[in-house]
């Protein structure tokens, strides 16, 4: 597994505003969208391309286009939905799948409640979206689901990561074709499984609390 922390002044600036508890939901959603687009630029650095002939107003030349099969973007519901637009802005031809997962707040274990994606992901580059890599349980379960369907190139795009979650992914996904792209690896998890200093519950801050 490979992890890439994006070091850029605009990433740091937008992340700081997301962390601020005074930032309201509309502003949070907008900034998260903008931040994801910046992360997506780095996450797609190795997106597969193929050569194509093109006619400019001046002459014929050779360019590139995204290869087939199309990349697959998979937000983890519900908070990952807030990252989808920022990702497909750079990959407008990507296919979109959905993976619904929920974390038990007592055991911190993740379970799947919904899936909507192709059964066969062989040869596909897959980008999975989840705002927080905290305990690592949700992303590990999600990536295992993708690999189980044949995915051989998975990139997880997360706003924030905790060292504990990174360690879990490195242990549980050792040797797997996985890259994690994030804006920051924070200090630690607290006793409730939240990232410190973090930004709180990303889903609640995007959409408001929901029972």
Automatic annotation (TrEMBL):
Q: Could you identify this protein by its name?
A: Uracil phosphoribosyltransferase
Q: Where does uracil bind?
A: 195, 200-202
Q: Which organism is it from?
A: Streptomyces somaliensis (strain ATCC 33201 / DSM 40738 / JCM 12659 / KCTC 9044 / NCTC 11332 / NRRL B-12077 / IP 733)
**Cofactor(s) the protein needs:** Mg(2+)
- State the activity regulation: Allosterically activated by GTP.
User: InterPro entries of this UniProt entry?
Assistant: PRTase-like, PRTase_dom, Upp_B, UPRT, UPRTase/APRTase
Among its keywords, does the record have Nucleotide-binding? yes
Q: Which UniProt keywords apply?
A: Allosteric enzyme, Glycosyltransferase, GTP-binding, Magnesium, Nucleotide-binding, Transferase
Superkingdom of the organism of origin:
Bacteria
Show the Gene3D superfamilies listed in the entry: 3.40.50.2020
Described function = Catalyzes the conversion of uracil and 5-phospho-alpha-D-ribose 1-diphosphate (PRPP) to UMP and diphosphate.
Group of enzyme by EC:
transferase
Q: Which NCBIfam families does the annotation name? A: PRK00129.1, upp
* Record note on cofactor: Binds 1 Mg(2+) ion per subunit. The magnesium is bound as Mg-PRPP.
Give, as in the UniProt entry, the pathway in which the protein acts: Pyrimidine metabolism; UMP biosynthesis via salvage pathway; UMP from uracil: step 1/1
Question: Which GO annotations describe the biological process of this protein?
Answer: UMP salvage; uracil salvage
Is DNA-binding included in the keywords of this UniProt record? Answer: no
Q: Which family does it belong to?
A: Belongs to the UPRTase family.
According to the UniProt entry, what is the EC number of this protein?
A: 2.4.2.9
User: Do you know which PANTHER family this protein is assigned to?
Assistant: ADENINE PHOSPHORIBOSYLTRANSFERASE (PTHR32315), URACIL PHOSPHORIBOSYLTRANSFERASE, CHLOROPLASTIC (PTHR32315:SF4)
- Record-linked SUPFAM superfamilies: PRTase-like
**Domain Phosphoribosyltransferase, residue spans:** 5-208
Residues that bind 5-phospho-alpha-D-ribose 1-diphosphate, according to the entry? Answer: 78, 103, 130-138, 201
What are the recorded GO MF terms, alphabetically? GTP binding; magnesium ion binding; uracil phosphoribosyltransferase activity
């Amino acid at each position: 597994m490979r992890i890439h922390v994006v070091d850029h002044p605009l990433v740091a600036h937008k992340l700081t505003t997301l962390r601020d508890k005074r930032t309201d939901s509309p502003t949070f959603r907008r900034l998260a969208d903008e931040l994801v687009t910046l992360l997506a630029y780095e996450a797609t650095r190795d997106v597969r391309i193929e050569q194509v002939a093109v006619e400019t107003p001046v002459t014929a030349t050779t360019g590139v286009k995204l290869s087939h099969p199309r990349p697959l973007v998979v937000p983890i519901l519900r908070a990952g939905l807030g990252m989808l637009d920022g990702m497909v802005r750079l990959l407008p031809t990507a296919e979109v799948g959905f993976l619904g997962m929920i974390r038990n707040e007592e055991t911190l274990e993740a379970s799947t409640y919904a899936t909507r994606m192709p059964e066969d992901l062989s040869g596909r580059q897959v980008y999975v979206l989840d705002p927080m890599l905290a305990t690592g349980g949700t992303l590990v379960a999600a990536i295992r689901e993708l690999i189980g369907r044949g995915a051989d190139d998975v990139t997880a795009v997360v706003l924030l990561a905790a060292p504990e979650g990174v360690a879990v992914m490195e242990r549980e996904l050792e040797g797997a074709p996985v890259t994690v792209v994030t804006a920051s690896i924070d200090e630690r998890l607290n006793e409730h499984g939240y990232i410190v200093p973090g930004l709180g519950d990303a889903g609640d801050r995007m959409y408001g609390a929901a029972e």
